[in-house]
Amino acid sequence: MTTTPDRISFLPVPTETEVPEGVAKLWRKAQGNLGFVPNVFKAQALNGEQFQAWWSYFNLLLNKEGHLSGQERELVAVVVSSINACLYCAVSHGAALRLSGMDAAKADAVAVNWRQAPLTAREAALCRYAEQLTRDPASMTEADLEPLRAAGLNDHQLMELVQVIGMFNLTNRVSSALGFVPNAEYYGAGR
Description:
This is Peroxidase-related enzyme. GO terms for molecular function: peroxidase activity. This protein has about 190 residues and is mainly α. The protein folds into 2 domains: about 15-65, AhpD-like (Single alpha-helices involved in coiled-coils or other helix-helix interfaces, Up-down Bundle), CATH 1.20.5.810; about 70-175, AhpD-like, CATH 1.20.1290.10. It has helices at about 20-35, 40-45, 50-60, 70-85, 85-100, 105-115, 120-135, 145-150, 155-175, 185-190. The mean pLDDT is about 95.
């Protein structure tokens, strides 16, 4: 199935009058804060209650004060999304990574091949772990945490790292399976 330029998902996208009030409220808030409604908000709203549950956890992991810095969480999001070849998330979180203060050239390198980006030792440890857990979760052992501990991560940061990696593996699969198209606004953000 091919997509047309105005199509943002392989499935129908509900209108604001067709979604629960909580979803409509979130769309209005996004429009006010960002100047647009992310296509992932529109596309996932086909099942409004499930979208709201996903958003609650996603928002907690990515947008609230956490144990990792916001930039570290976005770094991991971009690495996982790049490995999974998820267009929507690689583009949207690449924008978020740039907007977090990371130099655009470094953020772009992360999105293509994090090994070629000028990363700190801590950033490289986060990326290495994100790649391993994404590519081969069955291979994970307690020893895989040691490089992260050596890079200064504590138990709370380790738990949050794993949760962010898990969230993006889920979200990448939903976005890719249903052909979610990134908003045009993401491409130039932070450049």
